[in-house]
């Protein structure tokens, strides 16, 4: 009978490893290096493309629009990325990581990153690139007090809507630069009735943001398509009536197909400060 005891223990340990996708050493190191190298190759391609010059110009235009109430230029102090996908297994995610590196170089700031899909290879590669992987699913509800760039490539509508809700004030929202699916295209493609019911903040924000489309940075048209840099200019804020910014309920997404992974029920996901 006792002879079977060690076998049981091994099985239990193996089950524990398989259950935890983040177990650090459970991946071949060469895959991590391969992934990092392919991201650097993608960065070279991106930075030698025609669209790269337009991107640099647009980042410059965005900086001039970013002003504080007293007219000073607002400094970008952090970069947050949601919904990157898996760079070790997906070409789009690799090129998007290359753009994230470019944005980090441009702003010279620390970068938080989260996607529930990350594998252990993704996490090791992204850590090698000195990104900070968030442990908690914020559902995009991060409130900011300083200039922050959110890079959210092809994310579910709930993430954009949650981010807008978490910063719904004339002080916080202008501090957010959002690089993600074009809000004006979403508003064009989704009936107003559905937007008003489930994605109220995307609906309200239409016309508030100036959009700079991401030009063709790479030859594949499924990587940065339909994406824009969104920024609010101060003069647009002044056009809104006072009731526009009043406190509004947190979005719930009841009776609709939710496109994002929700936080676990026991984790509080109201505004992340
Ligand atoms: C349509 S995919 C886009 C993937 C990639 N960026 C691309 O363009 O192919 C949406 C991504 O959002 C991620 N996602 C879902 N819920 C999320 C959440 N709560 N926070 C961050 N990312 C989330 C998914 O895991 C998925 O990788």
Instruction: Work out the number of β strands.
Output: 7
Helix amount: 40-55%
What count of helical segments does DSSP give? 10
- Tally of distinct domains: 1
Notes on the structure:
This protein has 273 residues and is an alpha/beta fold. It has a single domain, classed as Rossmann fold (3-Layer(aba) Sandwich). It contains 10 helices and 7 strands. The protein has helices at residues 5-19, 29-47, 51-65, 91-107, 120-128, 157-166, 183-189, 192-198, 200-205, 234-238, and strands at residues 76-82, 111-114, 132-133, 147-152, 176-181, 209-213, 227-232. Strands 3-2-1-4-5-7-6 form a 7-stranded mixed beta sheet. Helix 2 crosses helix 4 (91-107) and helix 2 (29-47) packs across helix 5 (120-128). The longest helix is centred in the first third of the chain and has 19 residues, at 29-47. It is globular and about 55 Å long. The relative contact order is 0.14. Residues 1-10 and 12-26 have low confidence and may be disordered.
Topology:
Elements: H1 5-19, H2 29-47, H3 51-65, E1 76-82, H4 91-107, E2 111-114, H5 120-128, E3 132-133, E4 147-152, H6 157-166, E5 176-181, H7 183-189, H8 192-198, H9 200-205, E6 209-213, E7 227-232, H10 234-238
Parallel strand pairs: 1-2, 1-4, 2-3, 4-5
Antiparallel strand pairs: 5-7, 6-7
S-adenosylmethionine binds next to helix 4.
Protein name: SRR1-like domain-containing protein
Pfam families: SRR1
Family: Belongs to the SRR1 family.
């Amino acid at each position: 009978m006792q002879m079977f005891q060690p076998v049981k223990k091994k099985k239990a340990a193996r089950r524990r490893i398989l259950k935890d996708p983040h177990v650090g050493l459970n991946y071949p190191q060469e895959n991590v290096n391969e992934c990092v190298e392919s991201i650097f190759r993608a960065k070279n391609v991106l930075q030698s493309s025609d669209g790269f010059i337009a991107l640099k110009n647009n980042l410059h235009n965005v900086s001039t629009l970013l002003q504080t109430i007293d007219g000073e230029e607002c400094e970008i102090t952090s970069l947050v990325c949601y919904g990157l996908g898996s760079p070790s297994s997906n070409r789009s995610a690799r090129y998007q990581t290359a753009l994230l590196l470019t944005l980090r170089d441009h702003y010279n700031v620390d970068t938080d990153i989260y996607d529930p899909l990350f594998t252990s290879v993704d996490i090791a590669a992204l850590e090698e690139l000195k990104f900070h992987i968030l442990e908690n699913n914020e559902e995009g509800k991060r409130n900011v007090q300083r200039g922050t760039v959110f890079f959210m490539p092809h994310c579910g509508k709930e993430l954009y809507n949650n981010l807008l809700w978490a910063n719904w004030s004339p002080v916080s929202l202008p501090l957010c630069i959002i690089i993600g699916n074009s809000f004006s295209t979403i508003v064009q493609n989704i009936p107003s009735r559905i937007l008003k019911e489930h994605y109220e903040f995307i609906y309200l924000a239409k016309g508030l943001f100036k959009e700079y489309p991401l030009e063709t940075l790479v030859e594949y048209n499924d990587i940065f398509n339909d994406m824009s840099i969104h920024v609010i200019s101060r003069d647009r804020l002044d056009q809104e009536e006072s009731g526009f910014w009043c406190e509004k309920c947190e979005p719930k997404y009841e009776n609709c197909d939710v496109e994002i992974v929700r936080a676990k029920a026991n984790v509080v996901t109201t505004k992340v400060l």
